[in-house]
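Hypothesis: this fold can be encoded by more than one sequence.
Test: take the structure tokens below, design a sequence, compare later.
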């Protein structure tokens, strides 16, 4: 199995690695950081905007680039061609998340020496994430690897379900994917909340994450608030919590008064549609039902914040 693979998205890199094809990877994106085995591979992308700004500045910069018809990321065409991959794995779901699919197609269409297959994964639900496993495994002529990986994940989901089967009253859970402006997490996140025994509010599974008003949050008044900004780790999220904490009405929200506001590592666990979504569900279960689940994930995965 000597096919050379380039992955242009962290979630794709994680899938490829978990299926057992780390040694086939010859290039990755600048955001690929897991697992450690892929560190040091040639990096093919870079962002056209600074990621050091705050939520408002990043949102403004992304919108400006997209409105001008520009990609948020640059792709090193010459390096990509020199690597001569047999397979390029990317996505067409979110222009703000990775190099655009059309950009990749335009570059590859100019090649004449080899046939490169482009795989575009576009998951919006958990089933579509698992389908991505199947697609990559089939391309590698090893469908069994996907079956094994999915079986492991489904077994862990079953353990969650079995432990929560006596739960009748589910708490309402609001998952926030961007801080300013406020965006509510959707796609696969509502399914993860459901698997963890919560009742997701303000978003629907399989749809894109949506912006919402502060008035809507006050009206829903959730039992639990979980912060998972896209691309942010815990420290960076905490640094930006003031955008919410300074709002009139924040301290009278039920979740705030009952100290049920949490910050998770959105970048590592919730924003990437890959194998670690099972970890994400387990993290949510620990948060929602601390009396049912002994904590196994560290402060690097989630913390409670003093609001």
């Amino acid at each position: 199995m000597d096919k050379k693979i380039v992955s242009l998205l962290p979630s794709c890199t994680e899938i490829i690695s978990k299926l057992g094809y780390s040694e086939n990877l010859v290039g990755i994106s600048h955001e690929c950081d897991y697992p450690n085995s892929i560190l040091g591979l040639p990096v093919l992308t870079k962002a056209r905007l600074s990621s050091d700004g705050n939520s408002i500045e990043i949102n403004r910069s992304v919108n400006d680039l997209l409105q001008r018809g520009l990609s948020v990321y640059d792709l090193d065409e010459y390096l990509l061609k020199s690597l001569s991959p047999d397979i390029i794995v990317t996505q067409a779901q979110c222009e703000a998340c990775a190099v655009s699919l059309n950009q990749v197609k335009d570059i590859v269409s100019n090649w004449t020496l080899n046939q490169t297959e482009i795989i575009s994964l576009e998951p919006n639900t958990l089933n579509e994430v698992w389908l991505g496993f199947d697609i990559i495994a089939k391309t590698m002529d090893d469908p069994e690897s996907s079956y094994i990986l999915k079986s492991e994940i489904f077994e862990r989901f079953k353990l969650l379900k079995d432990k929560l089967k006596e739960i009748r009253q589910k708490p309402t859970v609001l998952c926030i994917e961007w801080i300013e402006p406020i965006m509510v997490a959707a796609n696969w996140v509502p399914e993860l909340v459901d698997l963890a025994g919560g009742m997701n509010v303000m978003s629907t599974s399989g749809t894109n994450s949506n912006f919402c008003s502060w008035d809507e949050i006050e009206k829903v008044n959730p039992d639990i608030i979980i912060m998972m900004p896209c691309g942010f780790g815990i420290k960076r999220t905490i640094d930006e919590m003031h955008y919410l904490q300074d709002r009139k009405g924040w301290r009278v929200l039920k979740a705030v008064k009952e100290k049920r506001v949490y910050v998770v590592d959105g970048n590592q666990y919730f924003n990437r549609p890959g194998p670690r979504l099972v970890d994400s569900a387990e993290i949510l279960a620990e948060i929602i039902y601390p009396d049912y689940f002994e904590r196994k994930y560290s402060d690097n995965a989630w913390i409670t914040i003093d609001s």
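The longest strand covers residues 172-178. The chain has a mean pLDDT of 90.
Hypothesis status: open.
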